[in-house]
Structure prediction request, 639 residues.
Amino acid sequence: MYREKLYSLEGIYREEFKITGFRFGHGENSACIVGSLRGNEYQQTYICSQLIRELKKLEEHGQIAGNKSILVIPCLNQYATNIDRRFWPLDDSDINRKFPGHIAGDTTQQIAANIMEIIKGYSYGIHLTSFYMPGKFVPHVRMMETGFQNPSLANLFGLPFVVIRKPKPMDTTTLNYNWQMGGTSAFSLYTNCSDYIDDVSAKQAVASILRFLTRMGIIKYNNHSGYIAEVIDEDNLVPILSGAAGFYKRLFEPGRTVYRGDVIGEIIDTYSGEILDRVISPTEGMIFFAYTGPTVMEDAVVYKVIRRLHE
Amino acid sequence: MIEEIVSLQMPVEERLVVRKNRLEPEHAGKNMKRISIVTGTHGDELNGQYVCYKLIEKIKAHPEHLCGIVDVYPSINPLGIDTGSRGIPMNDLDMNRVFPGTDSGAMAEHIAYKITQDIIGSDMCVDVHSSNIFIKEVPQVRLSPENYDKLLPYARLMNADIIWALSASVYLEASLANCLNMFGVPSIVVEMGAGSRITRTYARQTLDGIFRLMKELGIWSGSVEEVKEPIVANTGDVSAIHAGRSGLFILEDAEIGVNIQKGFKIGKIVSPLTGDVLEEIISPKDGFLFTLREHPVVYKGAIMARVCKTGDRAETAFASVKGGEAYV
Prediction:
């Protein structure tokens, strides 16, 4: 393993902004794993740190395949992470909405362009990322339907679900989309959380990445073969909306089966404590996403359900 | 008539409400033209607030001149404006990156959907922006390359100092104006001033443009001011100047909205710790200075200025910017 300063930006009142990478193996650019682009994606950086630890051991034992190299970049927004902000602190811009970037553009465009330059040309790209709403997911791999996507490759992570998302205009400036358009088989890996550390889900993520790298012949490793993933079109996830606003009590966790008519959440009046509304499942299926905020607005998405799928 | 376009109950006491004010003649006719004036997408952009106020004030003062429908949406991100946040305060999402939205989506997408659906059917939409707290802009119209030819005649009526096309529309695909254009509502984006303040001269200039546009569309029959002949940028005319160093930007004698010469010293980037000048910010060409850095703390790459070559005012080409894409 060697640690490398991949990019730096002169600070003004803070120390230099740095993006640091960890390289394993030698030879062709086989796989690149990207951690947090947002400052509050602590879980994503943590997963990278655990992956680096494992890859270091594997390399020491000669378990990186010949002519294969892996790059892990745990944190790409240190300035935000260190002050507990999600986006680029000075102008609140989201680096994951700046791709493919512009080498002569504004600061975050330049950062995005430099990241793109570093990570382009890898055969496989894995981005550990988060959703903008507070919530928990069942762990899954997400791919954009760019025409270059390959769900059967995504299946090799051995996670329970692969989600295919038709890109909306707002997606075209993300890392995943542009990585894929650049010829890398790019996957976004979602664990159940982002702004706190969940060791169980982190271990699952690390195992799934190692499994994928093994199956692609990049490392030599024995691990559990995981799941045969259910491939889901994101448009087929049923959103369930809150019918009122107030305190929100989540009654079901992701991964659990629900039946039509099940009460899966409660909305409680913020003053009287009375139940204002019950969130009722309109369908039978498995909870894919569950909102976790303490309060909820009217008509907010509180669950997404995979219709007619059971545990 | 004030209408609620979106109303969402919030957890404690209040609703999130997006309102519009529909102004129409007392005796509405059939097939009247309709214009939508939209602003307040970014909570730190306030010139549009003044534009809305003056627009409604003038129409109310002379209702006899109103021949069509004027829908005014002063704040499509009301919580952002109220809190001085550029994005939506709860999640920092940029409201102008979520259009056209979806009915069953999360809050921002839901609001975007309702607004888009409400505006569809308009004959024209003017989306008023005010840069941000970092950059000051002279009144300008920005067009997407896809709709340039179709929209240029309308843009010329907007009393802007300059009209230019964004060369990287990929960043703006999910913007309100882009989506409305896709849905067949001709939409133009006006930028002016800087964030978190009102520059009344710019707002009045734009207001005159809106009335001129309304006159053209047959929505306003009253007298209107003569509008400026804008600079229409040609390919390669616009140069963006970026900071090559991080530091503190000190403006020299540069003034926005004037012609400057190649080599003109716009400002310098200095180190407050060492007292050194780190970089001089120099104009790379003769031209019209229409963008200028407002916030003094700059990181390498930050946009410092844009200069547009003046001279021949050809009408059809795009301003290809070397670096420094602009956002709305």
